[in-house]
Amino acid sequence: MSNSTWNQFSSAPQASTPGMPNVVWAIGGGKGGIGKSFISSSLAICLTRMGKPVTLVDLDLGSANLHTCLGIKIPNQTLSDFVSGRVTDLNQIAANTEIAGLKFISGFNDALNIADMNRNAKGRLITALRGLSTPYVILDLGAGTSETTLDFFLAADQKIVAVTPEPTSIENAYRFMKSSFYRKLRQAESELGIQSLIEAAMDSRNQHGIRSPADLLRFIAQSNPEAGMRLAQKISDFQIQVLLNQVRTRQDIDLGHSMKSVCKKYFGIEANYLGYIDHDNAVWQSLRKRRPLVVEYPYSSIVGQFMQTTKNLLNPTALRAVI
User: Fold this and answer.
1) CB under 8 Å, gap of 24 or more: what pairs does 114-121 form?
2) N or C: which end of the chain has fewer CB within 10 A?
3) Beta bridge partners of 105
4) From CA 224, how far away is CA 75, in angstroms rounded?
5) Contact at 8 Å (CB) between 216 and 227?
6) How far apart are CA 281 and CA 308, in angstroms?
């Protein structure tokens, strides 16, 4: 990435507008080790380079380590303090970092079983995330498909699924997307009176021939057209952005197009192929130095890819074609 290219993206972070709602991005995936924390921190820093203040939140329920990607120590106050009630305003635990415009909220660092948060606690935390003072908030989610993880993913404006070109990562990414979709349906089932159909759909040997979310939508539309129409409206905002990480070959790049097609056929929804990030030794080198890659190697090619990915997320209706 040339100096001129970098400079065209860079600008001083501007203060958020009081009263304006923030925009939440969530980075999820079904498998650990696919670079979610690396992606989350890199996107956050790229946003600040574009003059957009951001709060980066570590919501990995099992092993919060986002601070390592930022090269900082765990702050004295974490999400545990908010959930336990020791702190009432989430902004109080948003620590400033050395990067202008970037605040950081550390994940849970005690025995609190956050994975089993009740509905009220989750709702309170989601509301508090929406009340953070920065115009952008990025959630680094943990691996897996716990209800809590899925609820945070679904609460985001931009739902990003990170995946690597490895068979296990691809399989788990599809499982994560499927679980997210069914979780979204469950949020609407009581109002629409389709509890029994959702339960049947979750049984792979159901008697309705439902084998996928797309099958379920067709079945409901045929059985109860009004409920089918209302359900389609409720899930219309369920759109996933697929981001490939650790790409090495042209075949790896093409995987994004394949996943987009499968999402359309299997889920009955549109999924955007957001972009891809090359495999680069600079990643592990920056991690070993405990320095963010965007800061340590600002002119590397993958920083350029992250900047373009950030631009794509800022303009979701004009995503570039990935070739």
Assistant:
1) 114/61, 114/79, 114/80, 114/83, 114/148, 115/61, 115/62, 115/146, 115/148, 116/148, 117/83, 117/148, 121/83
2) C
3) 57
4) 52
5) no
6) 20
Task: Give 62-102 pLDDT, tens digit per residue.
Answer: 666 788 888 888 888 888 889 888 999 999 999 999 899 99
Domains of the chain: 3-11+22-167+240-262+270-318 (3.40.50.300)
Using CA atoms, how far apart are residues 149 and 170, in angstroms rounded to an integer? 19
Residue 62: per-residue pLDDT: 61
Do 173 and 134 form a contact (C-beta atoms < 8 A)? no
Kindly give, in sequence order, each residue whose CB lies less than 8 Å from that of residue 85, ignoring residues fewer than 6 positions away.
none
Contacts (Cβ under 8 Å, ≥6 apart) of 287: 38, 68, 69, 293
Residue 283 vs residues 7, 46, 102, 261: alpha-carbon distances, Å:
22, 16, 20, 30
Contact between 152 and 126 under an 8 Å Cβ cutoff? The reply is yes
Please give the residue that has the higher pLDDT: either 177 or 193.
Answer: 177
CB 109 within 8 A of CB 61: no
Distance separating alpha carbons of residues 306 and 303, to the nearest angstrom: 5
Angle at 12 between CA 7 and CA 18, to 5 degrees: 145
Answer for the pair 207, 262: CB distance below 8 angstroms, yes or no. no
Compute φ and ψ for 102, nearest 5 degrees.
-110, 120
**Could you tell me the two tokens for 293?**
């890659």
Q: 3-state class of 223 per DSSP?
A: helix
